Structures are given as C-alpha cells and as structure tokens.
Amino acid sequence: xxxxxxxxxxxxxxxxxxxENDLVIAFLDVNPLSPGHTLVVPKQEMAELHMLSPASAxxxxxxxxxxxxxxxxxxxxxxYNILQNNGALAHQEVxxxxxxxxxxxxxxxxxxxxxxxxxxxxxxxxxxTTRVTHELRA
Length: 138
Fold this sequence. Notes:
Elements: H1 4-9, E1 17-20, E2 24-28, E3 38-42, H2 54-75, E4 79-83, E5 99-104, H3 122-137
C-alpha cells in the first residue's frame, strides 16, 4: 500500500506544495509544530534513509538548504531544526523517508528536545569504528 506521501506525490491527496522537482517534493506539514513546519520528501518510496538511491539522497541534500532558507525568510523564524527519523523505534510514523524543517521562534514555538548525552567508552568506540569502516569498504 502506498504511503500517504506517495499519495500526495501522485496528486491523490492535496497539499500546500512549496517545492518540487523530478526527485523531491516539499510541502507544509498538516500537523505543524510551528508555522512553516515543512516536510521534504523524496519521490522514491523507501522506508529509511540508507535505502535511498544515491540520486534521491543527493536530491534531498540539494533541496534541504534551498527550502530551509526560503522557509526562514518567509516566516521570520529565529532558527530551525531539521529532523529525520528512521524506523518506528526512532519515532518514524510514516514509513517513507522524510525530513522535517521545523522553524523555531523566540516565543518557544517549534521543536522541543531533551538530550541526555553519556560518556564515550573509548575501547568500545574503537571496536565500533573498526566494524563500521569495514562495512563502508564492503
């Protein structure tokens, strides 16, 4: 079954479209955290970022700063967050890759985060580095 984003891309569901090219679409979120909350979505329907083709990933990388800059100028927001979740455990609700551009306003509207950093274990980090770099060379 097609995701809601695929249905938006196909014109089956209307949206407030801000940007579109052959590989990417950007539109206002219908449940915004703040005015200007925008979704930037590849037209390729894949659940997680690492599954995208290089062309779709590159198109997202090109569209994000362009759309974020336009949203910032149009809204006058003080700052913004870009959020992207992969998998239900990471709070992804629509299983189609998408990035949120969430304007942050001086009055507090926007994304609220609780960040709980821990201390790195250097021995474990060295082992993980070896495993990841092995995967990157594979």
